[in-house]
Amino acid sequence: MTVGPFLADTHIILWSISDDPRLSQHHRAILASEAVVFASAASVWEIAIKRSIGKLNAPDDLPTLLPRMQFQPLAVTLQHADAVSSLPHHHGDPFDRLLIAQAQMEKLAILTSDPHFARYDVALG
What we know:
The protein has 125 residues and is of the alpha/beta class. 44% of the residues lie in helices and 11% in strands.
């Protein structure tokens, strides 16, 4: 098993919060391990937007909850945002594209169940 560090995508974060059965045993094992797993501010932003327009039922205290769940915060920098421009257009989701850019720049493996991520030059966990 890869030891990380990792960046959890938004679904992995949401599934871990709700103990959703879609969270794979592999991802559960990583999250339960001593591995460093980051949660991006981009994921919190995406969840907040979807929650505010009624597309998602999620906790409203993520900035407090995620660190208690052992997720390390990862800020979005100007460099992360700019790096999105050099990514191929395999995936149209702007939040996922930002996560890919962050993972590349920070040398993190992404925890995801999204098959689109495999088309990018990024390690998957």
